[in-house]
Design a protein that fits this description.
- The protein is an alpha+beta fold.
- It has a single domain (9-110), classed as Hotdog Thioesterase (Thiol Ester Dehydrase, Chain A, Roll).
- Helices cover 14% and strands 35% of the residues.
- It has one helix spanning 26-45; strands spanning 9-12, 49-59, 68-78, 82-92, 98-110.
- The protein has a five-stranded antiparallel beta sheet with strand order 1-3-4-5-2, covered by helices on one side.
- Strand 3 and strand 4 (82-92) form a beta hairpin.
- It starts with 8 loop residues before the first strand and ends in a 31-residue tail after the last strand.
- Pfam families: 4HBT (PF03061).
Length: 141
């Protein structure tokens, strides 16, 4: 992950966080990941940012009650008004073992006081412009 602004957080999974199977709700984990990614993006933009996309979400490991979930969020790409953040959620067992539970890429847009998109510092001038034909639908703007 990049050396720029980060949004790393840790949560302990409690009984109120799990589903009927006793594993962490996927939506709860995505909420935590979005929060960590927002911190990284806002630190970079030094202004309010909002989530516009969550892509390539892959759940790889169920998380149990009592586990820690360590979420690491780092800037992946800077557009003109957008910031893409790579997020990895690690399942930490009580013995210290850590395995990836989920990974995703989130895109945020920086806003001005009126709620309109504004350029972010260090932005590439045409980074938010439509991409050439080789861009797939899963690639963020």
């Amino acid at each position: 992950m990049s050396a720029g602004p980060r949004g790393d957080i840790t949560h302990r999974v409690l009984p109120s966080d799990v589903n009927h199977l006793g594993t962490l709700f996927g939506g709860r984990l995505l909420e935590w990941m979005d929060g960590a990614a927002e911190i990284a993006a806002a630190r970079y933009a030094r202004r309010v940012v909002v989530t516009v996309a969550m892509e390539q979400v892959v759940f790889t490991q169920p998380v149990q009650v009592g586990d820690l979930v360590r979420i690491e969020a780092a800037i992946d790409r800077i557009g003109r008004t957008s910031i893409r953040v790579q997020v990895t959620a690690w399942r930490e067992l009580t013995d210290g073992t850590a395995v990836i539970a989920c990974a995703a890429r989130l895109t945020f847009v920086a806003l001005d006081a009126s709620g309109r998109p504004v350029p972010v510092r260090g932005a590439c001038p045409d980074a938010d412009a439509p991409q050439a034909a080789e861009t797939s639908p899963s690639s963020p703007a």
